[in-house]
Design a protein that fits this description.
- The structure is a homodimer of 209-residue chains.
- The first copy, chain A, is mainly α and 209 residues long.
- In chain A, 71% of the residues lie in helices and 0% in strands.
- Chain A contains eleven helices and no strands.
- The first copy, chain A, has helices at 2-6, 13-20, 29-44, 51-57, 62-68, 80-93, 100-115, 119-130, 133-156, 161-183, 191-206.
- Chain A is elongated.
- The model of chain A is unreliable at 1-7 and 12-25 (pLDDT under 50).
- Chains A and B meet through helix 7, helix 9, helix 10 and helix 11 of A and helix 7, helix 9, helix 10 and helix 11 of B.
Chain lengths: 209, 209
């Protein structure tokens, strides 16, 4: 499970090692393709990179590429199902007395622990997405689907429909804000405290006047 | 302005009249196309309806269709820019002392006043969107863009970036929940009180424990 989760969003640790010492160690094909894609998207732009080029850059065939990914966009979102599973599991296993938002925060903390060692990779990925409206739309859809799965996980804990949706959507917005701050290069703070900071900001804006 | 705003999401009042007494009164071409599209999407499904069929059903040419809409999907979202303008204006004109979330609620109330007489139309549109993942994605993107514009309007009032985003996103989620309840046929309550009800639910889930 842990390794699967770490392939989130193209962030295979193997792929990171690969750049550092390519001769000594060959990571898995999936990780190599993800790393090659990230490098080329960065250098040439997402639109001007082809699947053939990604496969070549990774020293693999186009056929191998399609064994792992449906298209060149999905390379950047390959880990989203694993992330969803991790977070849904975390919501499900919170103690029964846990308030909905605290269950959601437990899930965000679990995600933060996975992302923390991958800041450099996450930053590169984020820059590629920020430069491309099509990828931004894809990210939006993935986040909405994640929010939907988390709302469902809350409902299974007995939370009513509207509070479940409100909690999940608020949690995802909190995560997005914290994540953006985290990937800013100047900011060396860890993701988890940034999540809790954004949560306090949410509580401040929604507090009864 | 008022009439432009009322063409939100294909909800031209003229289009509604058209069904009731086609012989007596001819609404504008735009409204007729929107109404024809809604009728055909409803009867045949969105995927199985062509622009040619919509134009024919409205008694207009395909060329006229493309004068108003870029494609058959946009017919359903034609009013979103007007909605955005209305809501952004409302955020901008709230008194200086207004809390960010209250400014956002003022914008939602203004939107509610526009939508209120159009429940039947909104319901038909919502059912078409709910039946089609591509349209759901489009709706998601439009709502995200609306949230972005509202966050920007809050920033122009001096609200910091994170609270502005958190407020706008929370407001859009509140609106979505209220809107869904409003279009449910069994539920005859008005949109505005449903918005305030969802807002109270948001305050409850985010309240300090």
């Amino acid at each position: 499970m842990a390794l699967d989760v770490i392939t989130l969003a193209g962030m295979t640790p193997g792929a990171i090692e690969y750049r550092e010492d390519m001769a000594r160690w060959q990571p898995d094909a999936r990780g190599r393709l993800q790393e090659a894609a990230l490098t080329l998207y960065d250098e040439r732009g997402f639109d001007d990179t082809t699947v053939t080029q990604i496969a070549e850059h990774a020293g693999l065939s186009k056929r191998t590429f399609f064994r792992y990914f449906t298209d060149k966009r999905e390379v950047l979102f390959a880990g989203s199902k694993d992330l969803e599973e991790l977070m849904v599991t975390e919501v499900a296993r919170a103690p029964e007395s846990t308030a909905p938002l605290d269950g959601m925060i437990a899930a965000l903390d679990a995600a933060a622990a996975i992302f923390e060692p991958l800041r450099e990779h996450a930053t590169r990925r984020q820059q590629i997405i920020a430069a491309n409206p099509e990828l931004q739309e894809r990210e939006l859809i993935k986040l909405a689907s994640l929010a939907g799965a988390l709302a469902q996980a809350l409902r299974r804990r007995g939370v009513a429909e509207a509070p479940a949706i409100l909690t999940a959507e608020a949690g995802i917005t909190v995560f997005r804000i914290a994540f953006e701050r985290w990937v800013e290069h100047a900011n060396r703070r860890e993701l988890q405290p940034l999540i809790h900071e954004a949560l306090e900001e949410l509580r401040a804006v929604t507090a009864q006047p």
